[in-house]
Design a protein that fits this description.
- The chain is an alpha+beta fold.
- The protein has 2 domains: 2-99, STAS domain (Transcription Regulator spoIIAA); 116-415, no CATH class.
- The chain has 7 helices and 23 strands.
- The strands form 2 sheets. The chain has a 19-stranded mixed sheet that branches. Strands 1-2-3-4 form a 4-stranded mixed sheet.
Length: 417
């Protein structure tokens, strides 16, 4: 983001050029704070050169509009491109704000629900189950080819634009946007849950970016490789550690969820308080250059960012993905063995937030996810891995307590571009 400032007595005009994503929003916020410290009370933002606005950008604009109003000043926006105008209107900067809350769901109190202990041979966690929609099932769509990652860079014909509305979730490699040209250099780890989309750009960005959908705007991403699920959840799973255990491994949690819906293939969304996460993310876009991603040491360090130990203890995380027992067919290429299990495979991504205790009984997925994105700092987006190197590895991700939603996947289809 390039910001040019022209000052007059008591006012300033800022010319913005580029992407008003999370990093651009932080830069704009710092610029506005500096102007206020210098006595400026009226600011006009020329957005004619802005090509993209994320939810982080609209929230910074709203925050500073309110800050200046308290000081009897004003924040104006001018020269809006059509796409930017639509996003800002949806965020409350125009007439469309009257309908921006359409489609939001209210919290559902599950304290009166029928909870029962999970009949499972778990060794680390205590589990309780409750029915969400007993007939709830998911349809899974496969996007791109994971094998392409190690064969050649992702070309335009390898990628697809995927819509990720409320009522769905998705994970994979992608970038927020609607065209390959605008996303090619930023493709990274991506997760979407209930109309909330987060990813970590692989273009040298220092922060994850995100976009929150609404009645007027549905998040879209250019996906190179990944899967998305849509439908309803059959079971709600509440979990915590047993007294003698330090944490609940992700593999045990996935096994319990899969067993709860009695199938060989299931989709899961988990909100939990972390003991530690084992994850990686791309340093470079797999759609740039002429070489595919390489996983051999030491060149893998040029492609992947990872730590020699689990990260983010005592954080709050939103995890989404698919788990299967002995998967067959096209979906098998998207799944990897889970730590310490016999024939169990999975693919999970995590959005990591600053710590916040999670409710254990009153839970509605859309409300919970919305609260995380609205009230807590998004710290990272990771592809979760199972490190099977024994004592030399970092094992797998584990949680302290939380809730999960799970449903059997009854249909799998490949999306052709």
């Amino acid at each position: 983001m390039k910001i040019s400032t022209a000052r007059e007595t008591g006012s300033a005009r800022l010319q913005l050029e580029g992407r008003l994503d999370r990093e651009g929003a932080e830069q704009l916020s710092y610029t506005l704070e500096t102007l206020l410290q210098g006595g400026i009370r009226t600011v006009t933002l020329d957005l004619s050169g802005v090509t993209y606005v994320s939810t982080a950008g609209t929230r910074v604009l709203t925050r500073w509009r309110e800050e200046l109003a308290v000081l009897r000043g004003k924040l104006n926006v001018a020269e809006l491109p059509a796409a930017v105008q639509e996003v800002l209107a949806d965020a409350g900067w125009g007439p469309a704000s009257e309908t921006s809350a359409a489609g939001r769901t209210s919290a559902v109190d599950l304290r009166g629900s029928s909870w029962y202990a999970a009949a499972d041979l778990a060794t680390s966690g205590n589990y309780e189950l409750s029915a969400c929609a007993p007939a709830g099932t998911l349809v899974c769509r496969l996007h791109g080819s994971p094998a392409q990652l190690t064969q050649a860079p992702f070309r335009q014909e390898d990628c697809s634009v995927v819509t990720l509305p409320a009522g769905s979730f998705g994970v994979g490699l992608g970038a927020i946007g609607s065209s390959y040209e605008s996303c090619q250099g930023r493709i990274g780890e991506l997760i979407a849950v209930e109309g909330h989309l987060a990813y970590f750009p692989s273009d040298g960005a220092r922060m994850a970016d995100y976009l929150v959908g609404s009645g007027r705007v549905t998040p879209r991403a250019v996906v190179a490789s990944g899967l998305s699920c849509e439908g309803g959840f059959a079971k709600l799973l509440r979990f915590s550690t047993q007294p003698e255990s330090e944490s609940v491994p992700l593999s045990e949690l996935a096994t319990t969820g899969l067993n709860a819906v009695g199938g060989g293939l299931a989709g899961m969304v988990i909100a939990g308080e972390t003991a530690g996460l084992a994850g990686v993310r791309l340093r470079r876009s797999p759609a740039i250059g002429t070489a595919p991603v390489q996983f051999e040491v030491p060149v893998v360090r040029d492609w992947l960012s990872f730590a020699p130990q689990r990260t983010y203890p005592m954080a709050t995380t939103l995890i989404a993905g698919v788990v299967a027992r002995a998967p067959k067919g096209p979906i098998a290429a998207f799944l990897r063995p889970l730590e310490g299990t016999d024939g169990l495979f999975g693919h999970f991504h995590a959005a990591v937030f600053s710590y916040h205790p999670l409710p254990q009984r009153t839970v509605e997925l859309g409300t919970l996810v919305g609260g995380l994105f609205e009230n807590h700092q998004l710290r990272d987006v990771l592809h979760l891995v199972s490190d099977t190197r024994g004592a030399a590895g970092v094992a797998e991700s584990s949680l302290l307590r939380g809730v999960g939603w799970v449903a059997p996947i009854t249909e799998v289809s490949e999306v052709r571009r």
